[in-house]
Amino acid sequence: MLVISFKVPTITGAMQDDGRIVLAQFFENKDLVDEVEANFDIDGSMLLLGVDEDSVTPEDKFVTNLFKKHFLGSTKFSNDNMERIGKMFSMIHFLIHADIEASMLAHNNEQPVYYYQYKYVTLLLYFFCVYFLFFLPKGTMGK
């Protein structure tokens, strides 16, 4: 019996700017953005770590504030920092998971694994954000 085996490569990756797209409608509501800044320990933990408001621990607050310090420095969580906040959300909600997936695939398989972090063309990203902010009917995102 002749067995032929092929090592088919796996290609995986993520978009570097996915966090910005997710946040488009969030930044439309300045009161909500201001509320997150005012109560970042709790609201930041909910947004970044997915923790329920009543379940936020001191460790959650500590980690959330480390993220804020790393990505925002001493600046505020505000519309003025949309680009930095978008990078923070992209890293936490998309890129870390894609990195872990690629590492696990490479570690547990014999075939090669190719990992890419794709980047939108900035102008294209701008048009996506304008569309989501101004042309998509309110309340339709995610439906």
List keywords for this structure.
143 residues; mainly alpha; two-stranded parallel ribbon; 6 helices
Structural summary, described in words:
This protein has 143 residues and is mainly α. It has one domain (14-135). Helices cover 56% and strands 8% of the residues. It has 6 helices and 2 strands. It has helices at 18-22, 30-38, 40-49, 58-72, 82-108, 122-135, and strands at residues 10-15, 113-118. Strands 1-2 form a two-stranded parallel sheet. The chain is elongated.
Total count of domains: 1
Number of extended strands: 2
| Beta-strand content bin | 5-15%
The ordered H/E elements are EHHHHHEH
List low-confidence stretches: none
Specify the helix fraction band: 55-70%
- Radius of gyration (CA) equals 19 Å
* CA-based shape: elongated
Spatial strand sequence of the major β-sheet: 1-2
Which structural class matches the secondary elements? mainly alpha
In terms of topology, how is this protein built?
Layout: E1 10-15, H1 18-22, H2 30-38, H3 40-49, H4 58-72, H5 82-108, E2 113-118, H6 122-135
Parallel strand pairs: 1-2
Helix pairs in contact: 2-3, 3-4, 4-5
